[in-house]
């Protein structure tokens, strides 16, 4: 029997109508899908490939990151000096 892992996955809609997918417990893992359903499937595939790569390299499989707080969305003004 294969071991099952569970990870928190974030789906961010894009202006083009796609979904960008990130996994906080697996920094650098990013994928996307045309629909939310496709993005979910892409997330599973990307996580599986990432974990298989870690296992192959003898690296530990990370635990999920608990996210208790909702993300905050706001605009920030950034001054830029003369070139």
UniProtKB/TrEMBL annotation:
It comes from the Bacteria. SUPFAM superfamilies: TTHA1013/TTHA0281-like. It holds the Pfam family HicB_lk_antitox. InterPro entries: HicB-like (IPR031807), TA_system_antitoxin (IPR051404), TTHA1013/TTHA0281-like (IPR035069). Residues 7-68 form the HicB-like antitoxin of toxin-antitoxin system domain. This is Type II toxin-antitoxin system HicB family antitoxin. It comes from Candidatus Abyssobacteria bacterium SURF_17.
